[in-house]
Amino acid sequence: MTGERTFYGFASDPAAKTITLGEHGEAPAEHVLSFEQPAPDVLELTGKLGEATIAARLRKIDLEHTELMTRGFRWISERPHNR
């Protein structure tokens, strides 16, 4: 929440239904999260990340209907799109 970036390495084990996030830095740490896929477009992650317990539900979106794909790319915008 401070805006500080943290970079992680990633490894998955589909048989055990876990992902491992490896922290880079002076004291590298590994965080193991369990995952479930209750529907083809939903992924649920649970586990501990440092001292925090997390539960996240990720939903796959159709990339063909995102703003970049529907609006198109423009090198030069005569007026800002976000206003």
Description:
With 83 residues, this protein is mostly beta strands. It has one domain (8-71). Helix content is 6%, strand content 46%. It contains one helix and five strands, in the order βββββα. It has one helix at 67-71; strands at residues 8-13, 18-23, 30-39, 42-49, 52-59. It has a five-stranded antiparallel sheet with strand order 1-2-3-4-5, with no helix packed on it. β1 and β2 (18-23) form a beta hairpin. The protein is extended and about 50 Å long. The two termini are 26 Å apart. The mean pLDDT is 85.
Q: Uncertain segments of ≥5 residues (pLDDT<50)?
A: none
Into which percentage range does the β-strand content fall? over 45%
Biggest sheet architecture: 5 strands, antiparallel
H/E element order:
EEEEEH
Q: Averaged pLDDT, please?
A: 85
Q: Count up the helices.
A: 1
Rg over CA atoms: 18 Å
How many individual domains? Answer: 1
Q: What percentage of residues falls in helices of 4 or more residues? A: under 10%
Molecular shape: extended
What would the keywords be for this entry?
83 residues; mainly beta; 1 helix; 6% helix; extended
Question: Could you give a short description of this structure?
Answer:
This protein is mainly beta and 83 residues long. The protein is built from one helix and five strands; from the N terminus they run βββββα.
